[in-house]
Every structure is written in C-alpha cells, then in structure tokens.
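Exercise: predict the fold of this chain.
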Amino acid sequence: MREVLIHAGGIAIRARLLQTPTADEIWRSLPIHGSALTWGPEIYFHTTLQSEAEPEARDVVSLGEIVFWPQGEAIAIAFGPTPLSRNGELRLAAPCNIWAHALDDVAKLRSVHAGEAISVSMAP
C-alpha cells in the first residue's frame, strides 16, 4: 500500500493513498513542498500539479479525507466546519478529488499557522 507523510509546521500526519488518477499523479510527483494556508479549520497549499475534477469529486468530505482542489491546484485537509459549512459538515470551496485517507488525527493540524512549511513525502 502507498502511504505518505504530511509534515506541516511541527505536525506529521500519515495517510494512505487511494486508487485514483489524482493519487497516482501525486505519488509520481513526491516529494511536494509548499507554504501552508488556512481557511477556517482547513489547511491547504498550492502545488505545481494539475488535475481535472474526477467523477467522484465532491465539496462535502469526511474527517480524514485528503483532497486535491483542481481549481486552486492545491492539496487540502479540512479538520472542522469551514466558513461554507452547514450543520457541522466539512464543506470545501469547490468539488475536490479525494486522493488519500489520514491514518492519524487531522485535528492536530489546528496548531499549524499560515506561512509554515508543509510537505508531502513517501512514508518510510
């Protein structure tokens, strides 16, 4: 199974990749580095990757799902209701491709601030 390690600030989250075209593209592009941005209880960062929205893309995700936002060319992780959420859901800004599931508690990302280094690399 393909697993990655996401480092953001002083936090590390392990994730298992799904069998999707976006997951395959991300795996081929590792390591990926960026600068963290936040949107309410969501952390994201821009990449050089490009991907069209997959048929299963959605804007409401479950806790622990890691996504690629095609319009923003960004990897994102929501860990609480965003400014667009209703009734506690995790609603993203637009439909996103789900490419991985976190194996660790993504709520730890609350301590990451905008501007901190973030990376995705193959898990050891």
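Check your answer against the key: The helical segments are 21-29.
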